[in-house]
Every structure is written in C-alpha cells, then in structure tokens.
Amino acid sequence: MSALARDLGAIAADTGFSGVVRVDGPGGIEVVRAYGLADRAHAIPNEADTQFGMASGSKGFTALVVMRLVEDGALELSTTARSVLGADLPLIDERVTVEHLLAHRSGIGDYLDEDLDLDLTDYLLPVPTQQLSTTEAYLDVLDGHRQKFAPGERFAYCNGGYVVLALIAERATGTSFDDLVRDVVCTPAGMGDTAFLRSDELPGCAAVGYVQVDGAWRTNVFHLPVRGSGDGGAYTTAADVATFWRALFAGSIVGEETLAEMLRKRSEARADRGYGLGFWLPADGRAALLVGSDSGVAFRSAHDPERGATWTLLSNTREGARAVAARLEQERTGSSGIPR
Asked: What pLDDT, on the 0 to 100 scale, is given for residue 122?
C-alpha cells in the first residue's frame, strides 16, 4: 500500500469522510479508494464506481457547452445576455456579455450569493426544491437581484450567472441544457455515467447526499434543486472524471485554441488560484481545477496535462473532504497547503 493510500485511510477514519478518492497517472490508476456509505438507511457502502453529485464542479461543463456554441457560431463571447434573454431578468445590465458571465465578472446579483458566507446546512432556496426541475424554472429565483457592480469591473463568483449561461445556451439552440451537456461533453468524452439526475429518483448506483441538521443525518433532498442546471448539480463517477480530463485535453470536446482561451487566467480570484472561463487555475500554473461544495456534496478534481495526472475527490457529505483535498493537493504539489 502506498503512503498516499495509507494517509487517505487514516484521514477518512479520523474525519468520517464518505466518498471516493482516485489518483490517475500517465500509466493508469495509481490509487482508488471508497469510504463510508452511499445510503445510510440501508447501509449500502460507497464503491469505486458510485455516482456522486458534483455541485459546482459541473460549471466546467456549462462553460464547455457555451464555448462549443461559440466555436459553432451560435454565440460569441461578446454576445450580450440581453440580446438572448429579451425582457426576462431586467435587472441584468445591458452590457453583460457571455464572457463576463463565464469569467464571473458580470457583476449581476446572485440568487445564492457566496459572499454572504452561507451556512450550507440551512434551507437556502427561496422556492420549493421540486420547482427547480428545468432551467427556465430558475427565472423566478434569478429575478429581483440588482446589479452589484459594472460588468468587467472585478471578479465575484456568481452561481446565478452560470444559470443565465444555461438559459442562453438553451435559447440559442432550442435544446434543453442537460441534453446539451450530454451531446457536447459526455457523449464525445465517453462519460456514460454522468448526467443531471433528479435527486428524488436516484438510481441504485448513486450516492445519497447527507447533511447534519440538529445533530441528525438527513438527506439533502430539501436543500438543493431537484435537478441541477448551469451552476452545478450533475452526477458523475471517479472513472468518468478521469475520462473527462483525458478527452478534454485530447480535443474531443472543444478545439485546442478554445481550450487555451478557457484556461487563460482572467482574474486572481483567490490567494491560491485564479480563474479562467469555467475552470479554476492553481497559482503554480500546473493544472486545471474543478471544485464543488454544497449541502451533502463535496467535489474536487485537478488535472495536470503535462504530467498526465489527475487527482479526484467525490463525497456525499462534507465531513473530512477538506482534509482529504489537502492531502491530494500535497501529493500534486509536494506542499502541505490546505485548499479552500
């Protein structure tokens, strides 16, 4: 057993981590471990091929859908949101473009504003979760939030902006967002176990998300939209994540120039990472990163194309995920920094 595998086992035991960790090198799988329970009510354990929610990790898929539409000429980075939305969401500044939204530099008000230091154990959605089953259904929660600053002025992470991108993609193509992700990302990449599943009809191979509320473990079915959209919520497996990164850098999803544009840093977003279009960019410049955290969900995957290596964490709770992610980051960089 490798030192990494031993350390991960110790961290999982100490913190109650529930999920899957996988490390891929140029020669194939180096470490894959599953911990905890996919279904606590029936004591079903997590397995290496269990499907987990990605939370905001699937914002990368949204960005790829939009950039593929840019490649195909259906949109431009300079396309304004207003030109597609018409009279909907009137508080969005007329100058906000697709590029602003992709880079989290739009300045639009957010229905789930992470600048407010939200408690993810709370019930944060302003409408019943079952109402949010399509992207168009988000219009009610996206509306009524005033512009925070002028478009392009600065970086401000914005969940609502990525739902607006999904709306734009749907209206530009006449195709539902989940079908666009399937056709543009999952099918060409060979990701057969990745989809926007409904939380109230999960298949047996998917992990149920759990949150501790008043000292008890409860499922996250009342915390999150019943089906995700542009700002996150796809389900995937560790194997599909590894497949995704290989396909992305092989040119199977978007072209080389498009990917380079997406990985060009637009903002120094945090102390340890910048942001491009849909992807976080670690400060050392050696990887692309997708991150998601929500009620009963933790996700992190970093890929270094030069080394042909990927480090992935998927979890159906948030317990222990930070410590596991820190150990994976140490493995990636040789440092002991703890990612946010």
From this structure: 87
